[in-house]
């Protein structure tokens, strides 16, 4: 997550520079053919280009709205996880009188948070965090789930035998919630908690399962691929035809100008074509980089830091001193 007011213009230009190289070539080629080689017939009516631009605008705008909605929904899910986790720490403190048993319930919850964020950071083939443009920007921030193995992270909360029992589980997070439910059942059988307290704790486990499922839905179901390919095709096609529509338009300006630009106005189609095309491709690239809010990109929901906040809050409720260190941002990216 970017913590500044905005990205610097230079950062944005560097991030999109590969598109700029290609668009520059697309902009120069029609002008060369038209002006140098004399292919005056090689142009398109501006009305046709405008129709294509309008269609591309609708498609790109639709995608960006949908991808932004996915990010906002992911933020809401994780803020609900934050609230429910704090409440979990509160009811464990109030319901379970034994400090050691309460600590085990708290630690297992932190293990669940850890397993969940590692699952959400797992690679999916449609994600773009490791594309060339995004991967080179990763030097500006740290992805904790890629610097430490899951087993090493779980070792801070679980005994070795419990970690070993999770080795073959498809979803370690689900199995940890199941283990949490079994532990609550043992506490009920031992008379440590009452039936009503057991029911309240089980309700919170159900809520956590629901929130995990909502996060996994965003992780495992990408923006529909048929819309994604239409978006890309429309933008690419518009960027190809735009210079062919602008060359003749700028050539007509030769009739009303003098001086050294007389007869050379067609070359102005190059920068204007480049700028307009760059706007469209940049909007597409922004939408693609916002599409998957858990992939490890610079605009992700900061689930690693939120987990740290939860752990600090819950452990402080229980008077514990083994607090995790907050993750510090690098170059205002958290």
Overview of this protein structure:
The protein is an all-alpha fold and 334 residues long. The chain has 12 helices and no strands. The chain has helices at 9-15, 17-36, 46-95, 99-120, 132-137, 150-154, 160-165, 172-189, 195-220, 225-251, 269-290, 303-317. Helix 2 packs antiparallel against helix 11 (269-290). The longest helix has 50 residues, at 46-95. The protein starts with 8 loop residues before the first helix and ends in a 17-residue tail after the last helix. The model has no long low-confidence stretch (mean pLDDT 89).
Write a short abstract of this structure.
The chain has 334 residues and is an all-alpha fold. The protein has helices at 9-15, 17-36, 46-95, 99-120, 132-137, 150-154, 160-165, 172-189, 195-220, 225-251, 269-290, 303-317.
Instruction: Give the low-pLDDT segments.
Output: none
Which shape, going by the Cα principal axes?
Answer: elongated
What's the total number of strands?
0
Helix/strand/pairing category? mainly alpha
Terminal Cα span = 5 Å
How many distinct helices? 12
**Rg, Cα atoms, Å:** 27 Å
Summary tags:
334 residues; mainly alpha; 12 helices
Blueprint (SSEs and pairs):
Blueprint: H1 9-15, H2 17-36, H3 46-95, H4 99-120, H5 132-137, H6 150-154, H7 160-165, H8 172-189, H9 195-220, H10 225-251, H11 269-290, H12 303-317
